[in-house]
Amino acid sequence: MSVTHEEVFAGLRALLGDGAVLVEPHELERYEKGWRYGRGKALAAVRPSGTEEVSRLLSYASSLGLRVVAQGGNTGLVGASTPDESGEMLVLSLERLSRTVEVDPVDRTVTADGGVLLSQLDAALVEHGLLFPIDLGADPSIGGMVATNTGGTRLLRYGDVRQNLLGLEVVLADGTVLDLMRPLRKNNTGLDARQLFVGTSGVFGVVTKAVMRVVPRPVQRVTALVGLSSGAAVLGLLAHLETRLGEVLTAFEAIGAEALVPVFRHQPRLRDPFGGRPPAYTVLVELSSTLDPGRLALDDLLETALAERLEAADGAGITDVFPGKPSELWEIRHHVSESLRQEGEVLAFDISVPRSSLAAFVEAARESVATGWPFVRFCDYGHWGDGGVHVNLVWTPDESRPAAALKAELQPRLYDLAVTRFHGSYSAEHGVGPHNQAFYDLYTPELVREVCRLLRQRLDPAGLLGTVRLG
Ligand SMILES: Cc1cc2nc3c(=O)[nH]c(=O)nc-3n(C[C@H](O)[C@H](O)[C@H](O)COP(=O)(O)OP(=O)(O)OC[C@H]3O[C@@H](n4cnc5c(N)ncnc54)[C@H](O)[C@@H]3O)c2cc1C
Known about the structure:
single chain, seven-stranded antiparallel β-sheet, 4 domains, Alpha-Beta Plaits, Uridine Diphospho-n-acetylenolpyruvylglucosamine Reductase, domain 3, 16 helices, five-stranded antiparallel β-sheet, Uridine Diphospho-n-acetylenolpyruvylglucosamine Reductase, domain 2, alpha+beta, binds flavin-adenine dinucleotide, globular
C-alpha cells in the first residue's frame, strides 16, 4: 500500500463520515474476535449505512488494494467473519445497513437490508401473521445467512436459506452493484446468479439487500421430549413420524446423553424430566400448523403417533415421553452448545451424513475418539431430521493437552470418517472458513475449484474480499 494508515482513515472518513470509521484498539476488539474461532487484527472497522456507501467504500478499497472482510452478526462458527492477523484488513460491518424491512403479504416476501438481524425480521413479520422460517439459537444477519446458507432447527420442514431466497443485491469488490432483486418464484432463464453468493462466505461480493420467501405463521405448536435407547431407535422414530404426520412435523432434534447432562448442570432453572438419568438419546419433536387446535388437534396427533410406536416390540426403543411447552423444551435444546462450553475445552465439528447412516457414523466416531483419546468426552447433538450432527469433544483444560494439538489430530480423523467412509460433509451448515479451509481444499473436486477461480478472476481479480479461498 503506497498510502499511510492515517491517509486511509482520512479517505474512509471523507467517504462515509466520522462515525462510520472505527480505528481505536478498544473499538476494534469486538470486530476482531469470532464467536468460536477466528481472532485477528483489523486496520479499521467501517460501517456504511446504505448500498451506495458500500459501493463507494469497496471502490476506494480496491483502488488501494486493501483487503476487506464482511461481517454481519459475527455469529459464524468457522472463523470467516474476522480479519486475519496482518492488521491490514478492513472489517466491513453491516450493522448500520439495517433500516429496510418491507413485508409484502400478497407476494409473501420480505425485503431486508443485508445487516438486518433475524430477530428484527421476525418482529416485522409477526404483525402480518408471517414467518421467515430459518430458526436457530443465535441472531445472525441477512447477509451472513446468505453467505453461509444457514440451516437451523426447522430445515426439515422449510429448507435452508438457499431454498427461501428470491432476490439479492450484491456489491462486487470494485464497487459495482449487481441487482438481482426480482422477487420471482418462477424464473427459468438460464444461470441462477443469486446462488453464486449463497454459501460462498462473501468472497464473490457483499450482500446489501435480499428478498426472502416467508410463510404463514403457525398458530399452534406442540412439542415433546422422547427418550430413546439408541441411535437406531432415533432413526426408526423419525421414519415413523414422517410417515404418520407429514408436513406438520416441523423439527426433530436429537441430543445424546453426554450433551444433555451439562445443560441441567449449568442451567439450574431448567427442569430435568429424566431426574439425572438421561436415556442414550433425547429427541425434541415439534409439530406445528397454521390451523387452530379446533380444526387440527396436534397434541392428539402426536400422542397417537407415539402410542403406535410404543406398541411395537420393546416399545421401538422409546424409554420416556414428556410433552411440554415449546418455549421450555426449546430452551433445553438451545442451551446445549453454551453448557458444553462451561464444561471445559471444546472442539466442535458440524457434520452431516445421509440420514440412514447417522447412527452408524456417530458410533464409529465415538469409538475412534474413545480408542485414541480416552480423556475426551464425546458429546453429540443436532438436527437429525436433516442428517446433521454436531460432534463436540470436551476435555478438562490441561497444559499437556493444548486445543490446537488435539484439533490437529482429531479434525482430520473425524472429517475423513464423515466424508470418505460415510459420504457426508465436513461442514453441514456452518460454511467454509479458516477453521475448515484445509478440508475444503482436500475434498472439493479440482474442477469445482477451477470454476471458482474463474469466477473470482472476473468478480474480484485482486482477491480482496474475505479470508476464504474457494479456488
Ligand atoms: C449459538 C449458535 C447457534 C447456531 N446455530 C446454527 C444453526 O442451527 N444452523 C446454522 O446454519 N448455523 C448456526 N449457527 C451459525 C451462524 O449463526 C450462521 O453461520 C449465521 O448465518 C452467520 O450469520 P452472521 O450474520 O452472524 O454472519 P457473520 O458471522 O458475521 O459472517 C459469516 C460469514 O458470512 C460473511 N458475511 C457476513 N455478512 C455478509 C454480507 N452482508 N455479505 C457477504 N458476506 C457476508 C462473512 O464474511 C463470513 O464469511 C449458530 C451460531 C451460534 C453462535
